[in-house]
Specification:
The chain contains 36 helices and 16 strands. By secondary structure, it is of the alpha/beta class. The chain folds into four domains: about 140 residues, Tetratricopeptide repeat domain (Serine Threonine Protein Phosphatase 5, Tetratricopeptide repeat), CATH 1.25.40.10; about 70 residues; about 140 residues, 2-Layer Sandwich (Alpha-Beta Plaits), CATH 3.30.70.270; about 270 residues, TIM Barrel (Alpha-Beta Barrel), CATH 3.20.20.450. The strands form three sheets. It has an eight-stranded mixed β-barrel, surrounded by six helices. Strand 13, helix 31 and strand 14 form a beta-alpha-beta unit. Helix 1 runs parallel beside helix 3 and helix 3 runs antiparallel to helix 4. Bound molecules: ligand C2E and calcium ion (CA) (2 copies). The site of one calcium ion (CA) has 4 residues, from loops.
Length: about 900
């Protein structure tokens, strides 16, 4: 079973990292901005320019960068310079570049400085500073392991030379990694320790208080956040730094927005505008506009919100925005949705989704690093588990709908807290490395680092001509892999695949295990017969009776094996992989590739031909799964599900033929057939005295198909009873304008709209708010285990609350037992559906079922238990 951990998403800590407050050295902060244009009064004097650059660093990194170039020129003019001087230049350049968010350039600069200093044996302050700069660069590229390593080395140097200020800077840097990891409590501890380590330094305090403000905000502690921001603002004012003051005011405004106080929020923004000097307005006003847009939206002035939103993103490419814009994208989507600009709303939603995914990846990578690192700065143990559960409790207590929505997102996609970072490749990689990389790419799977299919093929090719029946390719498919991947996310799914391969590879006599395609691994048994291979496959399946442990979560894995022992080396792997599906189709765990049953590619074509016939000949039918209204205790709706029994292939699972129909353009025929059939069946049920709503599945592509939209409309208008159309969240993503219009038309003519499989896809609140619908159907993956799984329970509960707060009803799918049903009722779900109530039934059995149910209701008005017993009788 899959356990979901919920983790709060760091999301976009507003402007947090834009404010790299801490200056590398305690130099005076008051520098005339006359140096900004690069024309310096100190061009001749290296030391003086270096000091200028250091001083300008925090306030104005662009100016600092220019001063660094000047210092470099001054050096060149002198003709002779030391490696320390050169290193200083490179270090300052790295500092400025990280502040400007350009780690790809900063990292080589810092590395260059380190190389220059490594010649000498001195491990002095400059050396430590360079390590810190390196750490910052790595942090920006999400290479948290390297970041921590460098911070640690720097920390040791500073401690040895007794430089408490620098120690404090490092502690703050570590605090910010904890912040990225979403471990806010720990982050607070580090910021506070940093302040204690070197008290009375305004710059350090400014950085710490501003960051603490952001962390408290993430923790939902309004008062804590406000007092930290106020203190930061005071310091910025004392330092006479209007830009910093404006940024902090923006943070304050954003804090108020988050807590619904728009009056205070707007006052803070006005102050920010007032203190901001004209020349620095250009880039910064975006952020102020962004918060203003949120205020306008919060006050219900949607047109103004949309106008300010467009000012926020003016001239920016929505595909390339940085984390700082994540929240603004989310509110942009809401604002545009409110004024009916669906296309823009969807674009912003996509951008939000991109950034959110990124943030989650970053977060899990930070966590993994922190877990692996051994830090003893404050003699603290990493009590990850405790923190996580404590964090969970407090998260749940925050009954803010938006917040809860994030939880749902997080838990759906982020099953475990730890994961691996996405491999980030940097432009400056040497050509040689690139060569190695190219080779690796061919024989190594990019995501998992496992040997690729090509690697296995190479191994087979070295065998020469094959003796039929004496070389077996074994392919093993992880069952439900797509679902696992959707829940785990790509990087953790990659880790899972590695663990599966490890376990198989440890088995005696097996080597060269490769990843053949996502969720499918394989190897070759040379000199083995099919019987031996079957035996090996069953031994391997047995290895997975024990769950796989991914970080601290146990995941049950089932494997299905496909074998091939043909004599064609080129098709050995392919056939073994096809045999996996053949095994699944006949509900076996192992199958040998069957040429008869599967004429390869022609199979799909023949299948689709047979499907068309099946609709005419009655081999294709509809079954109906009753849905229980938990408020009335009545089965008032039934979901129509297609069933196909083929003479040759037997039962073909709907997932298979629906996908095939979608891929081959036959889905409209199938759906039109289904709708006519459902309408006819509804009339029959009505004649038998049962007026039920029929819930009908409509594939995504059809929602933006105008011909189908019209057809469906005319059909349901002719129907005896009510209809509900089930669509998935992503159905309206492709062509939102048209899809939304269709949904509205359907709705206007009385069709109910339900969002199917909710939670398995995008699940964004603002998107949801855009979709015209009446009902959420929570995916059964979240419902099936509520009786035994605490986290699933919380999820179901919060989704029910979310649905209700949006004025929607919630149906839970996949209810399999009494206990689950009782819990669903407790959580306020409106309807329930699942094998525990009834399996999908053919029409005649359905009528019988409804008759029994109606009699039971007459006897017993609140029949939770009896509903159960009854359904067991009839299914
Ligand atoms: P769906 O829309 O999510 O339909 C519910 C599926 O969950 C059905 O699978 C149903 O048999 C199954 N189910 C219901 N209760 C339980 C339970 O308690 N436990 C478990 N494990 N499963 C339960 P089915 O019939 O195999 O359909 C699979 C999918 O195929 C459907 O998922 C739907 O997306 C699609 N589908 C089926 N018929 C049609 C159709 O006529 N048109 C379209 N477009 N899609 C269809
Ligand atoms: Ca459905
Ligand atoms: Ca469903």
């Amino acid at each position: 079973m899959l356990t979901r951990s919920m983790v709060k998403i760091a999301g976009s800590v507003l402007l947090a990292s834009v404010l790299s407050f801490v200056q590398p050295d305690a130099m005076a902060a008051n520098v005339s901005s006359g140096a900004v244009n690069g024309v310096s009064w100190h061009a001749q004097d290296f030391d003086a320019v270096v000091d200028e650059a250091r001083a300008a660093m925090m306030r104005d990194p662009v100016a600092a960068l220019e001063l660094v170039s000047e210092a470099e020129q001054a050096l060149a003019a002198q003709g002779q310079y030391t490696s320390v001087q050169q290193a200083t230049i490179s270090w300052l350049r790295a500092e400025a570049l990280t502040r400007l968010g350009r780690p790809a350039e900063a990292l080589p600069a810092a590395q260059g400085a380190l190389n220059l200093l490594s010649d000498t044996d001195t491990r002095d302050k400059l050396y430590g500073d360079v390590l810190v700069a390196l750490g910052r660069g790595y942090k920006q590229t999400s290479e948290y392991g390297l970041a921590l390593e460098n911070y640690q080395s720097a920390y040791e140097i500073f401690r040895d030379i007794g430089d408490t200020r620098s120690e404090a800077i490092v502690l703050q840097s570590i605090a910010s990694i904890y912040k990225d990891a979403g471990q806010y409590d720990r982050s607070v501890e580090y910021y506070l320790t940093a302040m204690e380590r070197h008290p009375g330094d305004v710059q350090l305090e400014l950085a710490a208080t501003n960051n603490l403000g952001n962390v408290y905000r993430e923790l939902g502690e309004f008062d804590g956040a406000r007092s930290q921001f106020e203190r930061a603002r005071e310091i910025a004012a004392e330092m006479q730094s209007p830009i910093l003051e404006a940024r902090i005011l923006n943070n304050i405004a954003s804090l108020y927005v988050g807590f619904g106080n728009f009056t205070e929020a707007s006052a803070a923004i006005e102050q920010a505008f007032a203190v901001l000097p004209d020349e620095s307005r250009i880039e910064w006003t975006r952020f102020l506009f962004g918060v203003q847009a949120q205020i306008a939206y919060g006050r219900g002035d949607y047109a103004e919100a949309a106008r300010l939103t467009s000012a926020t993103f003016d001239g920016l490419s929505l595909r390339e925005t940085s984390q700082h814009f994540a929240e603004f994208h989310e509110s942009a989507a809401q604002a545009y949705e409110a004024v009916g600009e669906w296309r823009l709303a969807t674009e912003h939603l996509r951008a939000y989704y991109r950034l959110d995914t990124q943030a989650r990846e970053v977060m899990s990578s930070a966590n993994l690093t922190l877990l692996g690192a051994e830090f003893h700065f404050a003699e603290q143990e990493l009590e990850i588990a405790r923190l996580r559960s404590a964090g969970l409790e407090s998260e749940l207590e925050l009954a803010d709908a938006r917040f809860r929505q994030r939880l749902i997102l997080a838990s759906a996609l982020l099953t475990v807290m730890f994961g691996l970072s996405i491999a980030l490749m940097w432009r400056q990689r040497a050509a040689r490395e690139r060569q190695v990389l190219l080779e690796r790419m061919l024989f190594e799977d990019g995501e998992t680092g496992l040997p690729s299919r090509s690697a296995l093929q190479r191994q087979i090719d070295t065998l020469g001509p094959l003796e039929p029946g004496m070389t077996v390719a074994v392919a093993l498919g992880i069952d439900r892999y797509d679902q696992l991947e959707a829940v785990l996310g790509f990087s953790r799914a990659a880790e899972l695949q590695r663990l599966v391969v490890d376990r198989i590879a440890n088995h005696e006599g097996i080597d060269g295990v490769a990843l053949l395609s996502p969720g499918v691994v394989g190897f070759m048994l040379d000199g083995a017969t099919l019987e031996e291979a079957r035996y090996t496959a069953s031994r391997i399946s047995a290895l997975f009776r024990r769950p796989v442990e991914l970080a601290d979560v146990e995941i049950d894995i089932d494997l299905t094996a496909g074998l091939d022992a043909g004599d064609d080396p080129a098709s050995l792997i392919k056939r073994a992989v096809i045999a996996i599906q053949q095994a699944r189709d006949i509900h076996q765990t192992v199958a040998v590739f069957d040429v008869e049953a599967f004429g390869d590619a022609s199979l799909d074509l023949s299948l689709i031909g047979r499907m068309t016939d099946a609709m005419r000949t009655g081999k294709m039918t509809l079954h109906y799964q009753p849905k229980l209204n938990l408020r009335t205790g009545e089965f008032d709706t039934v979901e129509a599900l297609s069933r196909w029994n083929d003479d040759e292939h037997g039962f073909v699972p709907p997932d298979t033929f629906i996908r095939l129909a979608e891929e081959t353009g036959r889905i409209r025929d199938l759906t039109e057939w289904g709708l006519r059939q459902a309408i006819a069946d509804q009339a029959r049920m009505s004649a038998a005295g049962f007026d039920v709503t029929i819930s009908f599945n409509i594939s995504g592509a059809l929602v933006s198909d105008p011909v189908f939209a019209e057809f469906a409309l005319q059909q349901v208008k002719s129907a005896r009873g009510k209809f509900c159309f089930e669509i998935t969240e992503t159905a309206a993503m492709q062509d939102p304008q048209r899809a939304m219009a269709t949904l509205r038309r359907w709705m206007d003519s009385g069709v109910r709209i339900a969002i199917d499989d909710y939670g398995s896809g995008l699940s964004s609140l603002s998107y949801l708010k855009m979709l015209p619908c009446h009902e959420l159907k929570l995916d059964r993956a979240f419902v099936q285990h509520i009786a035994t799984n605490e986290r699933d329970r919380m999820l179901v509960k919060s989704t029910a609350d979310l649905a209700h707060s949006l004025g929607l009803e919630m149906t839970a799918e996949g209810v399999e037992d009494d206990e689950g049903l009782a819990l669903l009722k407790l959580f306020g779900c409106d309807s329930a559906q699942g094998f525990g109530l009834s399996r999908p039934l053919p029409l005649a059995a359905l009528t019988e079922f409804l008759r029994n149910a109606a009699q039971d209701i007459k006897v017993e008005p609140a029949p939770l238990r009896s509903v159960q017993d009854r359904s067991k009788r009839s299914s």
